[in-house]
Write a structure and sequence with these properties.
single chain, about 120 residues, mainly beta, seven-stranded mixed sheet, four-stranded antiparallel sheet, 11 strands
Length: about 120
């Protein structure tokens, strides 16, 4: 089994910053792509940012220039630095990882989510 645990959410005023972390543990051989998604009340879950094992990144247009995704492969940990936060960034943020439990066996794992609330 693989567990992903997010941390770092909270309440912040518009224009402020928050940093999220996602630690993976369990039966892990290696981790391929990782990403952050978010879901606001009444809306579908949407992709925020992704990062490959080699460090290539991709961002949703709505967060480009404000959010930075990074990872520490040695620690199996994913990060999201969020700056210049806006009320529309308010959502539950979920971590996702494509985990290889064996060389040829890959499973997609999700964290339980962490709430980010941006007040105006």
């Amino acid at each position: 089994q693989v567990q992903l645990v997010e941390s770092g959410g909270g309440l912040v005023q518009a224009g402020g910053s928050l940093s999220l972390s996602c630690a993976a543990s369990g039966n892990i051989f290696s981790i391929d792509g990782m990403g952050w998604h978010r879901q606001a009340p009444g809306k579908q879950r949407e992709l925020v940012a992704t990062i490959t094992r080699g460090g290539s990144t991709n961002y949703a247009d709505s967060v480009k220039g404000r959010f930075t995704i990074s990872r520490d492969n040695a620690k199996n940990t994913l990060y999201l630095q969020m700056n210049s936060l806006k009320p529309e960034d308010t959502a539950v943020y979920y971590c996702n990882a494509d985990v290889r439990v064996r060389v040829a066996v890959r499973v997609s794992s999700w964290g339980q989510g962490t709430q980010v609330t941006v007040s105006s």
